[in-house]
Fold this protein.
Amino acid sequence: MAKIEKVLFSGNTHTTVNHDPNAQRGEHGVVDIKLSTPAGDNLDFIATEPHPKAEQLFAGAWSACYITAFGIAAQLKKVTLPPDYSVDIEVDIGQTGAAWFLGAQFTIRVPGLAKEVVEAIAHSAHQVCPYSKAVQGNIEVSLNVITA
């Protein structure tokens, strides 16, 4: 598995479990999503058909799947998660020489739990999540755990 030497584009997500059924959402099957372009422009797509970068879409789909797998892994370990836990995923596309690669960085925030407990849940979640299993051994995935 090769490491990316030069990151060209990134897609970032921040995923939490919504406990508020009254939270504002896009209507009729559309989404609210904040995006940025490779040039650094910040764009808001609210209740519209967004056209994000592929890295953003992959990170979004992976984070939605992974946060669910994280909850399942915690239940299997009989760990109660706080309501404000979250998963951030950055998917990068870049080059090493002339070859192109993907890479991913996970930041998992679980306030109040021991770091080693969260790390164990995170690794177990990768064994549950179909996206994680699909890329296992194919792209470099790093993990950052924050418990404060």
Q: What stands out?
A: Residues 41-50 have pLDDT under 50 and may be disordered. The first strand starts at residue 6 and ends at 16.
